[in-house]
């Protein structure tokens, strides 16, 4: 039977591009999204074979719902070969505003708890089967904090650390954990940004590189590589110079803007 790939955040952007890339390679798809109608409409536009995909409706932050659709997926389609925890949100925040503390809560619930909830239904079964790949989608923003991006940067740094921990837990069972750190990718998530985005990448090109990385079971990769080099250089800057360089950078829009 062909490869089964389980993807969250499949209603747009990176999730959709990964789904199409895997589909064109012959894979079967389990697609998770809050907006299931968007996924169904997209699948019809792409003329996907209904026998090769199934759509599941859930918010990844809903732990009970994610456990349920995990069981449904295994029952209906089998145990996935690849699970990609892609769903995430990015909203600007300012700690001086009380309402933005709720933004931070929602960001962590989606980007971190939701990621673990995505993997949870499959880890034990993959370990028992002694094969499978779990993919956490972080961000280059995990490497260094950006003014106005406190919730997002912190959540993506947590994704990197969590996936590293999980990698050590799963390795004895032959299950791989891959951490992807996208740079600036042309998706609905980035199009509202009001600052320059170096090395902006088309989402289809990102998907091509991401799938190759996942198949090679590379543990950690920044895509595109140029963004990885830039991020490492920024990591090496002393704090006083980094703060001066980034202090005047336009900030991510807050929820109220």
TrEMBL record:
SUPFAM superfamilies: NAD(P)-binding Rossmann-fold domains. Belongs to the short-chain dehydrogenases/reductases (SDR) family. This is Short-subunit dehydrogenase. Pfam families: adh_short (PF00106). Keywords: Oxidoreductase. The keyword Disulfide bond does not apply. Signal peptide: none annotated. Residues 3-184 form the Ketoreductase domain. InterPro entries: KR_dom, NAD(P)-bd_dom_sf, Sc_DH/Rdtase_CS, SDR_fam. It comes from Roseateles saccharophilus (Pseudomonas saccharophila).
């Amino acid at each position: 039977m062909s490869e089964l790939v389980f993807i969250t955040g499949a209603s747009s952007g990176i999730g959709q591009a990964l789904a199409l890339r895997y589909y064109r390679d012959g894979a079967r798809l389990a697609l998770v999204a809050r907006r299931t109608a968007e996924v169904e409409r997209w699948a019809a536009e792409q003329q996907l074979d209904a026998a090769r995909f199934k759509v599941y409706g859930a918010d990844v932050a809903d732990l009970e719902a994610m456990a349920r659709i995990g069981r449904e997926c295994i029952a209906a389609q089998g145990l996935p070969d690849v699970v990609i925890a892609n769903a995430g949100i990015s909203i600007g925040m300012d700690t001086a505003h009380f309402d933005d503390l709720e933004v931070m809560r929602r960001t962590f619930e989606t980007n971190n708890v939701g990621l673990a909830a995505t993997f949870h239904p499959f880890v034990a079964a993959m370990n028992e089967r002694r094969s499978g790949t779990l993919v956490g989608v972080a961000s280059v923003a995990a490497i260094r904090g950006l003014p106005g991006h406190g919730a997002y940067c912190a959540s993506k740094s947590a994704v990197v650390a969590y996936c590293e921990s999980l990698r050590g837990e799963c390795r004895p069972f032959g299950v791989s954990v891959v951490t992807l750190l996208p740079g600036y990718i042309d998706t609905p998530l980035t199009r509202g940004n009001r600052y320059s985005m170096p090395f902006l990448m088309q989402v289809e090109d990102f998907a091509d590189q991401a799938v190759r990385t996942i198949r090679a079971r590379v543990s950690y990769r920044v895509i595109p590589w140029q963004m990885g080099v830039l991020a490492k250089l920024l990591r090496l800057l002393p704090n006083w110079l980094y703060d001066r360089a980034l202090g005047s950078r336009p900030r991510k829009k807050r929820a109220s803007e």
